Recover the amino acids of this structure.
């Protein structure tokens, strides 16, 4: 009996064990099916992701190719502008005397170039034709032509990169150097109708305008910091002029800081080094500082200063010369402005007693300006000039000038 019961229990246990084993096997089989489905989904998603990445890469490549291949200059017609500048002048020296003035130590009698406002009476100073346009996705092109009474001159003609990395920009061609505060500005954008005397003395009436290449870098900071270097031909005869090869090198560092919401300070240092016509070195140092105070939405006051120092080796001696200008401009509103400027040549190795003068060579200027619209300007200016020697004698020249400037066409804004 016991044997029968034990055998029955053993049989039942075996049946239950087999059933449990079958259940476990079924669960494993179901899990394998689920894992296979999951793996299939993973493989599918991975493939879709790879295809998406490939399509995105191809799309970016096509966009890049499209930008260059579909670029059409027909869509970028040049901006063209025409500037007209004219004046009426009263001056207490004759035209012949004025044409032969000298600035002791800098410009000999008869060597001065006077492109702006040369004559008593009426002057058509120039017509300036400016053109600019995108060339392609990589370059912009600029050209400025000066038409005077008996000549046409390429004032500037250069290309400039559009999208270099790391805040870099390259300019190549003929252009006005960014040395100092005002060298790169054209006459119609000056605060006064006459050039600062130290610029005329050191660089001539056209300033540093050379063929060459420029590299500028703008730092990625909240404070504006810009550094630049230029390699130029060096044809400027006032301070350089050895043109057997490119021999003029310019560097500068410029910055601006907002002291408050309505007060900005701009400053810079500049350096120019090259060979002069006697094949010796000329070094010019410059420092500038400008304060701009916004009084209201349309009213402001600006105080601009610049000092230049030249060390010119002419073989038998080294000329050490320097000068500065300071100008105060009050913009009452968009239409009216007034200003005053004092400037002087403060260091000069030339003995001024030979010209019956022991004073510094200084000049005082006051102006009143009316702009009925941004594209037209009338400016009345008075100047007392003590910087010039006429007939071997320093003369005090009094001058009153009324100038008219007109701009038509698409003309870009000038640097502040």
């Amino acid at each position: 009996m016991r044997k029968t019961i034990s055998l029955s229990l053993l049989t039942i246990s075996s049946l239950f064990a087999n059933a449990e084993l079958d259940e476990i096997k079924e669960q494993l089989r179901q899990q394998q099916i689920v894992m296979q489905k999951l793996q299939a989904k993973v493989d599918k998603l991975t493939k879709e992701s790879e295809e998406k990445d490939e399509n995105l890469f191809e799309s970016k490549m096509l966009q890049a190719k499209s930008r260059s291949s579909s670029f059409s200059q027909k869509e970028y017609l040049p901006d063209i502008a025409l500037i007209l500048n004219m004046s009426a002048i009263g001056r207490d020296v004759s035209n012949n005397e004025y044409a032969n003035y000298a600035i002791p130590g800098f410009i000999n009698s008869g060597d001065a170039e006077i492109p702006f406002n040369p004559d008593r009476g009426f002057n058509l100073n120039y017509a300036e034709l400016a053109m600019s346009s995108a060339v392609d996705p990589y370059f912009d092109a600029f050209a400025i032509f000066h038409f005077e009474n008996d000549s046409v001159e390429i004032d500037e003609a250069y290309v400039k990169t559009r999208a270099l990395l790391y805040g870099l920009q390259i300019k190549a061609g003929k252009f006005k150097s960014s040395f100092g505060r005002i060298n790169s500005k054209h006459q119609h954008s000056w605060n006064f109708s006459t050039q600062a005397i130290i610029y005329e003395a050191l660089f001539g009436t056209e300033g540093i305008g050379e063929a060459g290449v420029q590299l500028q870098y703008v730092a990625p900071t909240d404070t504006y910091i810009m550094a630049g270097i230029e390699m130029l031909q060096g044809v400027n005869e006032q301070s350089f002029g050895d043109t057997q090869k490119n021999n003029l090198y310019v560097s500068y560092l410029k910055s601006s800081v907002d002291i408050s919401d309505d007060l900005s300070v701009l400053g810079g240092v500049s350096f120019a080094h090259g060979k002069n016509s006697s094949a010796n070195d000329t070094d010019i140092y410059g420092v500038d500082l400008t304060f701009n105070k916004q009084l209201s939405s349309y009213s402001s006051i600006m105080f601009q200063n610049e000092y230049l120092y030249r060390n010119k080796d002419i073989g038998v001696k080294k000329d050490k010369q320097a000068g500065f200008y300071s100008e105060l401009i009050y913009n009452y509103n968009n239409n009216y402005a007034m200003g005053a400027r004092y400037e002087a040549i403060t260091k000069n190795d030339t003995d001024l007693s030979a010209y019956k003068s022991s004073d510094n060579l200084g000049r005082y200027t006051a102006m009143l300006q009316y702009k009925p619209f941004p594209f037209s300007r009338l400016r009345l200016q008075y100047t007392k000039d003590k910087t010039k020697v006429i007939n071997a004698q320093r003369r005090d020249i009094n001058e009153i000038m009324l100038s008219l400037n007109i701009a038509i066409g698409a003309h870009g804004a000038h640097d502040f």
About this structure: The chain has a mean pLDDT of 87. The two ends are 118 Å apart (CA to CA).
